[in-house]
Amino acid sequence: MLDDTDRKIINGLQGGFPLSERPYAEAAASLGLEEDELIGRIAALRETSVLSRFGPMFDAAKMGGAFCLCAMAVPEARFEEVAEAVNKYDQVAHNYERAHALNMWFVLASDAAEDIEATAESITRDTGLEVLLMPKLEEYFIGLKVDA
User: Fold this and answer.
1) Which of 16, 24, 97, 131 shows its CA 20 to 30 Å from the CA of 8?
2) pLDDT tens for residues 71-114?
3) 10 inside domain
4) What number of other Cβ atoms are within 10 A of residue 8's Cβ?
5) Do 108 and 120 contact (CB within 8 A), yes or no?
6) What are 66's strand-pairing partners?
7) Would the pTM count as exceeding 0.70?
């Protein structure tokens, strides 16, 4: 269960994090917390999977790299095994399950466009399942903020 402080942290840190010598201290102060408490609570939220990740979101394409939405049709009995195999790649930005024939979706991000296809081929070899690449045709920005 989330308490009021956890909710304050989740709601308060979406959409920005200080860029300073001591960003956690600065973020903690803005939330009325001590630096160690903020770090500990973020770690606990990650350990309990309340937060799947905590970190920056980079626009790989603007930095000269590439990213691609990918999907796979994974047999239900193998879902956890395949998720583990896919998630071992540093290029996998995030991975989620959908109630659809294509039930595993993830984003590959890389320093170079050619690495996207090579990583997808490697995942296919590792899992024996085809990775469908869905490159971006047009970009839309929709801000996402979730209230805890």
Assistant:
1) 97
2) 999 999 999 999 999 999 999 978 899 999 999 999 998 888 88
3) yes
4) 16
5) yes
6) 110
7) no
Helix (H) or strand (E) holding 95: strand 92-97
Long-range residue pairs from 86-93, CB within 8 A, at least 24 positions apart, any chain: 86/123, 86/127, 89/119, 89/122, 89/123, 91/115, 91/116, 91/119, 93/67
HSE-up of 78 (CA within 13 Å, CB side)?
13
Q: Which of 114, 120, 118 is nearest to 132 (CA)?
A: 120
> What's the half-sphere exposure (Cβ side, CA atoms, 13 Å) at 86?
29
76 and 109 in a single domain? The answer is yes
Residues 6+ apart with CB under 8 A from 70: 105, 106, 107, 108, 120, 131, 132, 133, 134
**In angstroms, rounded to a whole number, what is the distance separating the alpha carbons of residues 115 and 64?**
12
Q: Does 146 reside within a domain?
A: no
Give CA–CA dist 79/83, Å, rounded. 6
Domain boundaries, position 9: 4-47
- H or E stretch at 30: helix 23-31
Q: Are residues 78 and 28 part of one domain?
A: no
Domain count, the chain: 2
